[in-house]
């Protein structure tokens, strides 16, 4: 059975050749003009990054190396006794472009579990933080502190050839992914269940199986499966999203994978990006508080207008690229719809019902409001609500789970950027006066 490093080693030379030929033969070819509205409008639609592992189509949504989410659900190995995609399968696909065999995935699970413990300085750091500090702030601090043991930073200091960068970037990236469950679960324990013992990592379990155990939910098979699906499909969403792009930018300075991903986590922690899943739940719970449990479509409509008229965004709706309902939202909704026992539970169903009802009303209201280019739900409209169903009710923690996931895609690109020898990212900026002058010229 191949290791992930061997599998990657096999595919790198062809990509290096492809890049070399493209640069040599078509370096001066144009991919389109740059409009003023793109420069002042957050670079929407600007083709300016190389990112191989996933492509986001505005109407169809995400494909990982050409595979849609339903394709991945069919092709990628699940955990023993499970059905959902697991993080290791997605990581293998993202990194190598190949669908792994079951044996390859099991080997990767073991490799990650064996590296899963935290160094004691990181445990001490996390334990010293006030429990009132936002869990995402804590996660970023823990990830940054893991760079104490960066093999990339140590090797760079010693002096290594550029062609060897990727091997150290891979080692650090796998180490970081392996340690994220222990780090994220320690934060959960400290903030919400102080003093509760943390179980040790089981070398026979997959990454998310261990994460669920450490969180204290390992016995809930449905939640473990939900987390596997959630973490796999949040793994990558093209290169331009704020968190992945941040990792790409920071690592282009040859900062090691740990501090590159710590920076990415703080981009994810913004309410227009990953924090939206926390915001959705806060908003849905406020809606329930105000309107009670017998919510009608008319009530939701009024609540939506109240949000919009007070100048706030409707969290969980809209997207920088997507122009249709997000297939990740659909996959997570389907997960619930195939579990009638969950849908029948009046307590865990409340939030899901509210989000499903909102989905029936919000697109029409947002269209009438007339601002957003995409009136449809994004992944965050459902993801947090389902965690709430299963008992993870501390919504300030939700973005941490997203943060465990996004490492799969963002670190894949860090490894590939080193394998392809991509340079420091350094776009040109212009002043308002310079833009005016360029238009007149
Ligand atoms: N509710 C109300 N107004 C919205 C809106 C929403 N859900 N989505 C967009 N708009 C508004 C924008 O604020 C903007 O208003 P402005 O002209 O006054 O500045 C206008 O519509 C045009 O925006 P856009 O081009 O459609 O979107 P964008 O690419 O600038 O921003 C996003 C995309 C996601 C930030 C935005 O849709 C939004 O704020 N959504 C709510 C927050 C959210 O769910 N974020 C999660 C995204 C997914 C993720 O990263 N996890």
Describe, in plain words, how this protein is organized in 3D.
With 441 residues, this protein is mainly α. The protein has a domain at 276-389: Orthogonal Bundle (Cytochrome p450-Terp, domain 2). The protein has helices spanning 4-26, 36-40, 69-75, 87-96, 102-114, 120-128, 135-145, 151-158, 165-192, 207-215, 221-233, 242-251, 257-268, 276-291, 297-309, 327-337, 340-343, 346-369, 380-389, 398-419, 432-440; strands spanning 54-57, 61-64. Strands 1-2 form a two-stranded antiparallel sheet. The longest helix is centred in the middle third of the chain and has 28 residues, at 165-192. The radius of gyration is 22 Å and the shape is globular. Bound molecules: amidocarboxymethyldethia coenzyme *A. Residues 44, 272-274, 276, 308, 313-320, 371-374, 378, 380 line the site of amidocarboxymethyldethia coenzyme *A.
Supply the helix-strand structural class: mainly alpha
CATH superfamily of the domain at 276-389: Cytochrome P450-Terp, domain 2
> What order do the helices and strands follow?
HHEEHHHHHHHHHHHHHHHHHHH
**Which overall shape is indicated by the principal axes computed on the Cα atoms?**
globular
Given as residue ranges, the uncertain stretches (5+ residues, pLDDT < 50) are: none
The overall pLDDT average reads 94
What oligomeric state do the depicted chains represent?
single chain
């Amino acid at each position: 059975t191949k290791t992930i490093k061997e599998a990657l080693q096999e595919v790198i030379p062809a990509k290096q050749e492809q890049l070399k030929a493209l640069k040599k033969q078509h370096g001066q070819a144009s991919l389109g003009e740059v409009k003023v509205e793109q420069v002042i409008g957050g670079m929407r639609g600007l083709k300016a990054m190389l990112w191989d592992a996933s492509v986001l189509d505005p109407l169809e949504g995400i494909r990982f190396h050409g595979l849609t989410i339903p394709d991945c659900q069919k092709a990628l190995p699940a955990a023993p006794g499970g059905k959902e995609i697991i993080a290791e399968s997605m990581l293998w696909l993202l990194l190598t472009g190949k669908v792994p065999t079951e044996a390859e995935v099991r080997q990767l699970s073991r490799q990650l579990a064996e590296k899963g413990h935290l160094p004691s300085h990181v445990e001490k750091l996390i334990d010293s933080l006030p429990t009132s500090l936002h869990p995402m702030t804590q996660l970023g601090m823990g990830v940054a502190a893991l760079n104490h043991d960066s093999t990339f930073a140590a090797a760079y200091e010693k002096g290594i050839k550029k062609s060897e960068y990727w091997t150290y970037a891979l080692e650090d990236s796998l180490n970081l992914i392996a340690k994220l469950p222990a780090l994220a679960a320690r934060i959960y324990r400290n903030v919400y269940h102080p003093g509760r013992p943390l179980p040790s990592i089981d070398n026979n379990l997959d990454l998310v199986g261990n994460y669920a155990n450490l969180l204290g939910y390992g016995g809930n098979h449905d939640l473990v499966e939900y987390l596997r699906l959630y973490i796999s499909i949040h793994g990558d969403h093209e290169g331009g999203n704020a968190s992945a792009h941040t990792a790409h930018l920071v690592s282009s300075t040859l900062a090691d994978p740990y501090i590159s991903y710590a920076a990415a986590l703080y981009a994810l922690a913004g309410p227009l990006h990953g924090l939206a899943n926390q915001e959705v739940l806060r908003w849905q719970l406020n809606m329930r508080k105000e309107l009670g449990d017998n919510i009608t479509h008319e009530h939701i409509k009024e609540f939506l207008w109240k949000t919009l008229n007070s100048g706030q965004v409707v969290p969980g709706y809209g997207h920088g690229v997507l122009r249709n309902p997000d297939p990740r939202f659909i996959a997570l909704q389907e997960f619930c719809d195939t579990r009638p026992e969950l849908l029948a539970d009046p307590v865990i169903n409340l939030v899901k019902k509210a989000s499903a009802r909102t989905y029936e009303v919000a697109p029409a209201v947002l269209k009438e409001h007339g601002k957003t280019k995409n009136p449809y739900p994004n992944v965050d409209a459902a993801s947090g609500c389902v965690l709430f169903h299963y008992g993870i009710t501390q919504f300030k923690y939700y973005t941490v789970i997203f943060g465990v996931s996004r490492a799969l895609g963002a670190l894949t690109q860090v490894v590939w950027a080193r394998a392809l020898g991509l340079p420091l990212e350094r776009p040109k900026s212009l002043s308002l006066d310079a833009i005016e002058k360029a238009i007149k010229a």
